[in-house]
Specification:
Elements (H helix, E strand, L loop, with lengths): L4 H15 L8 H11 L5 E4 L5 E5 L7 E7 L4 E7 L5 E6 L11 E5 L5 E6 L23 E2 L5 H6 L7 E4 L4 E2 L4 E4 L2 H16 L6 E7 L7 H10 L3 E9 L20 E6 L10 H14 L4 E5 L5 H6 L7 E9 L6 E4 H17 L2 H7 L7
Parallel strand pairs: 3-12, 3-13, 13-16, 14-15
Antiparallel strand pairs: 1-2, 2-12, 4-5, 4-9, 6-7, 6-9, 7-8, 10-11, 11-17, 14-16, 16-17
Length: 370
């Protein structure tokens, strides 16, 4: 039996977002989809100079500025070289593992907006030497075959050095409420924010939604947007690693599918990540418990989110992360449970309604001692 009701509706939104083109810095297609989804529910929508979408839904009173963030960009590649026979070599945009790339289909976006499809070629097992069989092929040795016979033919198709490249993958349903596709990092965060933004009403706070560009290459868009908004507090929506897998010890699991959204205590290596504001984190935990929303707590030793950049803007912004547990992130087959995503939206709406100016002033605002 397939998905029904709100799950089917959310899946259809996620599918549109996930399958759209949006390599960092080249987010035009997904930007258009998001603006279309937001414009009828926002008091203001704009695109800033850095390509971020910023939408505002005004609160019911003299509330705080509350920022919701998710990033729209995906990891991908640039064309770095085309050889004489028309084979194309790539440079990474964001963090890839070369192990998952051989044999994948890709899409190349040309200067004039056309899509050229290709495959990342791989030597068949019949021709592998014994010493090659267990080796991971480095990215600089991988090539894309678009069917061209020469550099001139590839260029005539519109492919030039600098063209952005993403993976060519459909988003599909698996069993139960689980789905798989590319770029759930962080298209699911975008879908959660869109769903929540349409649902929330009657809140005291002014809700600023930032759908940020270029997170995968240094948290850049969110930093620019937060400097413009000067929020009082922020929630970032992103994915986190669900490594509840046969090859991982349970003590090393960061999160599990189907057990609810993840509240991150801390992430990143050494000084590179975020320690969630403890009072804001406790506020999210208490809200989830009061609303009967399942949640998980995690510490992620590698990787971080836009919340890190937002927290360090202006005089400092209390920030926390609500994450959707996702298997196989930064691969072509990311997998998640729609129940976790919809519970993330439910938690975001409930917490944002409860986050009054009175609570903020008592718990998060700077205080003069003398």
């Amino acid at each position: 039996m397939g998905l029904e009701g709100v799950y089917k509706e959310f899946f259809n939104l996620l599918k549109r977002l996930s399958e759209s083109f949006g390599v960092s810095g080249y987010e035009d297609e997904i930007r258009g989809i998001v603006v279309d989804e937001l414009k009828d529910y926002a008091d203001e929508v704009k695109i800033d100079r850095y390509g971020n979408i910023i939408a505002l839904k005004k609160g019911s009173g003299d509330g705080i500025k509350l920022l919701w963030d998710a990033h729209m960009d995906e990891i991908g590649f640039f064309v770095r070289h085309i050889d004489d026979r028309g084979f194309i070599y790539l440079s990474p945009v964001g963090g890839w593992s070369e192990r998952v790339l051989p044999g994948q289909r890709v899409r190349i976006l040309t200067r004039d907006g056309r899509i050229v499809r290709g495959v990342i070629g791989v030597k068949p097992p019949h021709l592998l030497k014994p010493e090659e069989r267990d080796k991971v092929i480095p990215l600089d040795k991988l090539y894309v075959d678009i069917g061209a016979s020469s550099r001139e033919e590839a260029e005539k198709a519109g492919v030039t050095v600098g063209c952005p490249v993403d993976l060519d993958r459909d988003t599909i349903e698996l069993l139960g409420h689980r789905v798989t596709g590319k770029s759930f990092d962080d298209r699911v965060g975008v879908a959660v924010l869109l769903h929540a933004f349409k649902e929330i009403e009657g809140q005291e706070a002014d809700i600023y939604v930032v759908i940020a560009s270029q997170e995968e290459v240094g948290l850049k868009g969110a930093r620019v947007a937060a400097q413009h908004i000067h929020p009082d507090a922020a929630f970032a929506l992103d994915v986190t690693t669900a490594n509840d897998l046969p090859d991982t010890s349970k003590q090393d699991w960061v999160a599990e599918l189907g057990k609810g959204p993840v509240l991150k205590v801390a992430d990143g290596r050494s000084a590179s990540g975020l320690i969630a504001n403890p009072k804001l984190l406790e506020f999210l935990k208490r809200t989830a418990e009061e609303e009967g929303i399942p949640y998980q707590l995690s510490i992620l030793p590698g990787g971080t989110t836009d919340a890190t950049a937002i927290a360090l803007t202006g005089k400092g912004v209390p920030a926390a992360v609500i994450a959707v547990p996702t298997r196989y992130i930064h691969s072509p087959i990311e997998t998640l449970d729609l129940r976790d995503a919809l519970n993330a939206a439910k938690l975001l709406v409930a917490a944002s309604r409860k986050l009054t100016k009175k609570w903020y002033l008592e718990n998060l605002e700077e205080k003069k001692i003398k």
